[in-house]
Write a structure and sequence with these properties.
about 80 residues, rod-shaped, binds zinc ion
Amino acid sequence: MGEQQLGQGARELPRRFMTKKCPYCSTTLGYDETICLGCKKKVGEANEYGIAVKPGAWKAYVSALVAVSAFLGYLYYAIFLN
Ligand SMILES: [Zn+2]
């Protein structure tokens, strides 16, 4: 008898940071700031390290993806449609 109840409700991890850092000038900003107070650049949400992401970084990612798929498409064309 007497089952022990192990700490309920204490497992919630803090998923949000209270602050984040500007990726350009390392100014500490409030979590919801969208413009850096130090350098006036746009900043995104905090990443897993509490550093704001640079908005527009996805563009570089997408263009890299496009470049790679274009290259692969060219390879496919060169190899199979010779
Ligand atoms: Zn800044």
